[in-house]
């Protein structure tokens, strides 16, 4: 059984649609017992990290999630909540990944000498891919990003992207995975990644 | 480096795709889901669906269509048309839209932008502006270009950004439907003044026009409708040509 975490933080439907498109089904839940029992857990998320973290805490899930042993995939805010600290709202997160989440700084230039846009919105190439999460996905493949805050590079980095600075496009430690990009919106490459996660 | 985006736009009326020529004459050019899926497979980076009947007619059909789009396509999409309250945006979010675009209602009540942005994030709100040049001044229009407002393009675009819009979709009503090229100089000026990504819309007639709006207009994305709907430009050919010109697009 695949579980998608429902904690009032966004695009559950998009994630469910993507799981369906790769031929699987999932339940949507915030129930600790169901979460513990699930074979796989996906933590989606859009919006503000502080609001999402409060929501996790109010459900008591900030303590439960770090103790899980099945494969867990955090997407965007879902990944950020698994990091140490987020500059968005200056909040402590679950501390699963050894990375802090910081805001993109204004003032970086692109190859035409124009100011880079924030939010970082659109398709960006993802490089230095590691772990079976990226099985059959070529380095340089494009994934869809929408965010103003990003996890820094660290020992847990399994993919990198560049937007003025190089940041972690994906992270992994033990059974925990996270992508800053949205695989559920990243065309065929994204569907391949979701399949890879569900095959872990 | 983030890639320049190619965005086919599907105008929807009564659940069907239409393209207005200068927003007046309307021809049906296909089933939205079929078109959307074909575009995603061809390499479109994003899609925009505008409910052009929304201000006059029932919106229920559109929300149902949005659910089907979300289930069937694997790339991001924006929906717009007739969004005048937070509840409209919420309904479309729940139906599976990645972003909503607000236009006329935001001109009349700019707080709408901040209301949606503070609830669902800046990335969820696209400010769509239709404007035309009147006596040398770019005037913002509403209701599909039919009404002139008292707002001026550049100041309104900046205000919308400051209120929380995460992206600007600007359509030059002077160029829309003409197939004579985008308003490149205006996009370049907008790009100087704004920090949010800019989607260029109105005037695409051939590949060179799209090259120009990226190279001279510094647009982040190029939106077009009829040239794609009628197969005048195929997205794979367009991307090959853009790459050949050194423009970074997703292959």
Keywords:
heterodimer; A: 200 residues; alpha/beta; Rossmann fold; seven-stranded mixed sheet; B: 251 residues; TIM Barrel; eight-stranded parallel β-barrel; 10 helices; 37% helix
> Judging by the overall fold, what is the CATH architecture of chain B?
Alpha-Beta Barrel
Distance between the first and last residues' Cα of chain B: 14 Å
Radius of gyration of chain B: 17 Å
Overall spatial form of chain A: globular
Quaternary organisation of the protein chains: heterodimer
Structural class based on helices, strands and sheet pairing of chain B: alpha/beta
CATH class descriptor name of chain B: Alpha Beta
The main sheet of chain A comes to: 7 strands, mixed
Written as H for each helix and E for each strand, in order along the chain, the element string of chain B is EEEHEHEHEHHEEEHEHEHEHH
Query: What would you say the CATH architecture of chain A is?
Result: 3-Layer(aba) Sandwich
CA radius of gyration of chain A is 16 Å
Q: Assign the CATH topology of chain A.
A: Rossmann fold
Molecular structure report:
- The complex is a heterodimer of chains A (200) and B (251).
- Chain A is of the alpha/beta class and 200 residues long.
- Chain A has one domain: 3-Layer(aba) Sandwich (Rossmann fold), CATH 3.40.50.880.
- Helices cover 23% and strands 30% of the residues of chain A.
- Chain A has helices at residues 12-21, 32-37, 49-58, 61-64, 77-80, 187-198, and strands at 2-5, 26-29, 40-43, 72-75, 85-86, 91-92, 100-103, 120-126, 141-147, 149-151, 157-163, 165-173, 176-179.
- In chain A, the strands form three sheets. Chain A has a seven-stranded mixed sheet with strand order 2-1-3-4-13-12-11.
- In chain A, helix 1 links the parallel strand 1 and strand 2.
- Chain B has one domain (5-244): Aldolase class I (TIM Barrel).
- Chain B has 251 residues and is α/β, with parallel strands linked by helices.
- In chain B, helix 1 (32-42) runs parallel beside helix 2 (60-72) and helix 2 (60-72) packs parallel to helix 3 (86-95).
- The interface between A and B is large, with 42 and 33 residues.
């Amino acid at each position: 059984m695949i579980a998608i975490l429902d904690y009032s933080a966004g695009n559950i439907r998009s994630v469910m649609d993507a799981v369906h498109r790769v031929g699987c089904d999932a339940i949507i839940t915030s129930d600790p017992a169901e979460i513990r029992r699930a074979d796989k857990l996906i933590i989606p998320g859009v919006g503000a990290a502080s609001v999402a973290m409060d929501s996790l805490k109010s459900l008591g899930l900030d303590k439960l999630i770090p103790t899980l042993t099945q494969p867990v995939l955090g997407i965007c805010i879902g990944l950020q909540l698994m990091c140490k600290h987020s500059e968005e709202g200056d909040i402590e997160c679950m501390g699963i990944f050894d990375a802090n989440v910081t805001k993109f700084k204004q003032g970086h230039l692109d190859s035409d000498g124009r100011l880079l846009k924030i939010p970082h919105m659109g398709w960006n190439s993802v490089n230095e891919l590691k772990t079976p999460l990226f099985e059959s996905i070529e380095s340089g493949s494009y994934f869809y990003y929408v965010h103003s805050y990003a996890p820094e590079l660290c020992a847990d980095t399994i993919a990198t992207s560049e937007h003025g600075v190089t940041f972690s496009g994906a992270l992994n430690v033990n059974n925990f995975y996270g992508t800053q990009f949205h695989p559920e919106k990243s065309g065929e490459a994204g569907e391949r990644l979701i399949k890879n996660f569900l095959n872990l | 480096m983030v890639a320049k985006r190619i965005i086919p736009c599907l105008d929807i009326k009564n659940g069907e795709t239409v393209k207005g020529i200068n927003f007046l004459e309307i021809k049906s050019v296909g089933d939205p889901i079929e078109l959307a899926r074909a575009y995603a497979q061809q390499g479109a980076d994003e899609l925009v669906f505008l409910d052009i009947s929304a201000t006059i007619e029932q919106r229920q059909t559109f929300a149902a269509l949005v659910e089907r789009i979300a289930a069937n396509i694997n790339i991001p999409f924006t929906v717009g048309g007739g969004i005048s309250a937070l509840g409209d945006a919420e309904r479309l979010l729940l139906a599976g839209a990645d972003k909503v675009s607000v236009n006329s209602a935001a001109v009349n009540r700019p707080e709408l932008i901040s209301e949606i942005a503070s609830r669902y994030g800046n990335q969820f709100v696209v400010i769509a502006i239709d404007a035309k040049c009147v006596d040398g001044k770019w005037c913002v229009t509403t209701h599909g270009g039919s009404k002139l407002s008292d707002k001026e393009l550049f100041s309104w675009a900046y205000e919308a950004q400051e209120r929380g819009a995460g992206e600007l979709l600007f359509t030059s009503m002077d160029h829309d439907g003409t197939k004579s090229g985008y308003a490149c100089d205006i996009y370049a000026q907008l790009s100087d003044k704004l920090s949010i990504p800019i989607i260029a819309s109105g005037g695409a007639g051939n590949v060179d026009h799209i090259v120009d709006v990226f190279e001279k207009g510094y647009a982040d994305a190029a939106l077009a409708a009829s040239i794609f709907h009628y197969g005048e430009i195929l997205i794979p050919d367009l991307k090959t040509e853009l790459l050949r010109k050194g423009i970074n697009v997703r292959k």
